[in-house]
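WARN no homologs supplied; continuing
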Amino acid sequence: MKILAWVSLAVLIGTYISIPVGDPDLWWHIVVGRWILSHASVPTVDYWNMFSGDTPWRAYSWSHEVIFALTDRMWGGVGLARLQLLLAIVLTASLQSIMGRLARDYCAGAMIGAYTTIACYAHFSLRPQTTVWILFAATLLASDIIVERGLSRLRLLTLLGLGSVWANTHLTAVLGLAGVFLWTLQRDSKERNVRRASLASLAFFMGTLLTPYWGGEWVTLFQKSGHTIQFSSIDEFKPAHILQFSTAFVLLQVGFLVAVYQSHGKTPSPSRCLLACGMILAGLTAVKFLPFAAISSSALMALWWRHTAESSSEVAGLDNISKGLIKLSQAFHRLSFQTVGSIAFFMGCLGALNISAQSKLPIDRGLVPKEAVDFIQMQQLSGPILNEFSVGGYVMYRYSSAEGEPLRKVPIDGRTNVNSPEIWKLYDDAFAGRANWKQYIDRVKPGVILWRRGSPFVSLLDLSPEWCRVFTAGNNLDDYTVFISRDEYTRRGGEFTSPDCTS
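OK structure emitted
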């Protein structure tokens, strides 16, 4: 029954963080997955961007792109929502299990893992990077086992496998490499310490070379190293601030760690502190790294639990918060069969309610411009579509064949290593409504403009005599609008109505 309660908590937290599908990058991942399935190979150049000019490009998330494409082909939007829900539950269960093994107490692991998952809530979506969070935690656990039990062929092969899965999932394997080295670099004799960390890191690194590109992902990583600064206007590259959900959770973790470690005069090893501090700094610089900060801080919390609970004398000298948490864990272990069963049943019912609510709205229409693109296709509007960065992937999805071949290329999309700096600068100026906003239009020469209603760019288009708004998905500022040129509006007179153009 305790295992059932543990599983029920994972389901409850997983269903809580899994909201309707709306990640803007998911759609171009599906297109690439279709192409891979059709050609039985991975692409080496870009085919979908108007201005890429068939530049070299690596599908470094190809493994997940194939899964996304197959799911979409077989079950559509409902299947994608179910896949996201499954990923959320697997994420929660994995973090609970890994933190439980680090803490050597599965009740503590359940609490720390659940906290970590909720800390990642604002960043969770159906994307390859979510799987990387699991891999990062698993890498820390594998490294911890090496420190505790020593190097062995099986443990080195485990790190090699983790490195390979990571490199075939996302471009951030360098974070795993740093995690392996710093987590295994412990207070032993200097020679053994460095040798162990180096061999473990080498095993992980060798795994990252086992990809269809034979390690070419490292080249792509170096090419994208400046994108956090270059594309700083993108939400996930923006610096963190205290009002953000994940930032508050990470700061609470930091405060807790400082308090409990100070209470008994022990601190984690300098290398593990350096890893956590590095992840926190990265997360404060760009919010997309905050989940790694939460996971590394949670791993230190689990280690504190393990080291503290092993010594009853240390427990007696702890502060009240630490004592309370440990007593809570002990109380859970003493719960009766019926009580644990009731808790599991209650959490299971809440999880079922969450699943039922998500079934009614599998796709978030506020983030995905389905109605607007439906209108464009139904009215057979011609010419390139001028789109926002966040919807470029969905336009790729709607204007690609079942084999992933482009039927209409997009001027800009979610792949930052494909968009040219020139086009990005023009787009950013238009998005912000700067004085040269028309240059983006002049460069793309669109027949249709697809944009969010509340944007400064849309306000400028409403005032422009050259463009007519012919569709708005709703009355909210985040709803999508469609513009066509005044010449096209006049030529097809009577087919459209517009609030800013006369028929």
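Strands lie at 385-387, 448-452, 467-472, 480-485.
OK
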